[in-house]
Amino acid sequence: MKKYLVFLLAICLFVSCEKNFIKEDVTNDTDTTTSGSDIADGTDHDNASDYIWNESDVIYIQLNETSITSSDTIVKISGSVATIKSAGTYSISGTLNDGQIIVNSDSDETIRLILNGVNITSSTSAPVYIKNGKKTIVILVDNTENYLTDATTYVYENSEETEPNAALFSNSDLTIYGNGSLIIDANYNDGISSDDGLLIKSGTVKVTSADEGLRGKDYLIVKGGNTTVVSSGDGLKSDCEDDATVGYILIESGELDITSTGDAISAQTDVTINDGVININSGGGSSKTVSSTSSAKGIKGELSVKINGGTITINTADDGIHSNSIVDIEGGSTEISAADDGIHAEKSITIANSNINITKSYEAIESLTITLDNSNVSIVATNDGFNASAGLTAGGTESNDGSNLIIKGGIIYVSVSNGDAIDSNGNLTISGGTIIGHGPSSQPELGVDCNGTFKVTGGIMAVSGPSSNMLETPGTSSTQYCVVVILTSSQSANSIFHVQDSGGNEILTFAPTRNYQTITLSSPSLKNGETYTIYTGGSYSTAATNGYYSGGTYTPGTSYKTFTISSIITTVGSSSGGNQPGRP
Question: Which of 72, 327, 476, 543 has minimal CB crowding within 10 Å?
Answer without folding.
Answer: 543
